[in-house]
Structure formats: structure tokens, C-alpha cells
Amino acid sequence: MTKTIAVAAATGVLLLAATACSSNPGTPAPAASGTPSAPVSSGPQAPRVSNPLAVGKYEQDPCTVLTPAQATEILNSVRHSQSDGNAAPICNWFDADDSGLTIGFVPHQGGLSTVYENTATSSVGYFKVGPDIAGYPSAFFSNLDDRNRGGCQLAVGVTDDEAFTSSVILQKSSPSYADPCSLAVKAATAAVTTIKAGA
């Protein structure tokens, strides 16, 4: 049961990394004389990250991005474990009923822009611009919309070329089951707080 939840909760990290890795850059066409090239995507553009965060130490040790006190407050976590992700390790926290929270970093894969680019593909089950996370832009996204079943995924841009995902899969016993995205936001906000403090 726990392994299944951990795999499901990591979908956001995997989707973001896999999409970024699978894009073909192609050869840019020469611009018309004096006219700049038009952007490839006609959809909304991801906001720039005005104050990039130094997240290098968390990329390989994501379980330190939440302090034990934060993990207890957010999820009433009773255990956590680190596992391999597609681009970097991920950390999974669980409560006593196996509701799960996963946070993972996706370095050098286009940051939040990759999530925005997914809006034009049929593989994305949902996309919604997220709230400001302690000064950093975010977006809700997934290739499967399970928000009415305790699932939610949020990506937060920490540099223009890097994001982290905060993903939850909640059991019906969770008080946040009906609004899983609020828990993903709470976890992401705590993570940014930790990163800023250098904890």
C-alpha cells in the first residue's frame, strides 16, 4: 500500500522531468529582417523567478526540505523515506493512515516553463496557475485529475530553470481529503521557508 502511494505521489516529479527531457529543441528559423522570433508556445508563459533560490543541497537530500516539526504540522507525519526520482531523489512522508506527501526537485529541466508548456498537450489532465508561494510562482498540474479523490500536484519555480513539486495522495481519513491542493500549497510554502532559512 505504502509503495503504491509513494509511486503515485511522485507522478508530478516524473511528469515534469520526462516532459522536459523528451522535448526536441529543433533548429530555430532565421528571424525576418528586424523582427524578433515569435515564441514557440501561444499559451500562457511562466513568470520569471526574480529571486532564485540556492537549492543544490536539497536536490540530493530532499528529506531535509521539511523539518520534523513542519512535517508533523502539515501531515502529522509518522515516517518518511527517500527514493529515486527521474531527475533527482524524492522524499515521501506518510501519516499513520498512509496519506502521503512527496517533494522532489527537478534541476535543469526548464523550471516552471515546462509545466506551462504542458498546457498545450492532451496528456495533461489539468493545469491551473497556482498561488504565490512565499514569493515564488507555482502551478497545479497533472496528467490525471484526481483532485476529487485526495490527490493534487503543485510545481513551484525556484529558478528559471528549476522547480520542485509538492504532491499529495490522501486517504479519506485525512481532514484535507476534500481539498488536497491546500495541503500541497502548505507543504510547498514550508519547503520554501526551510530553503530560505538554509535549514
TrEMBL record:
Keywords: Signal. Pfam families: DUF3558. Residues 25-44 have a biased composition (Low complexity). Transmembrane segments: none annotated. It comes from the Bacteria. InterPro entries: DUF3558. PROSITE patterns: PROKAR_LIPOPROTEIN (PS51257). Residues 1-22 form the signal peptide. Residues 25-51 are annotated as: Disordered. This is DUF3558 domain-containing protein. The lineage of its organism: Bacteria, Bacillati, Actinomycetota, Actinomycetes, Pseudonocardiales.
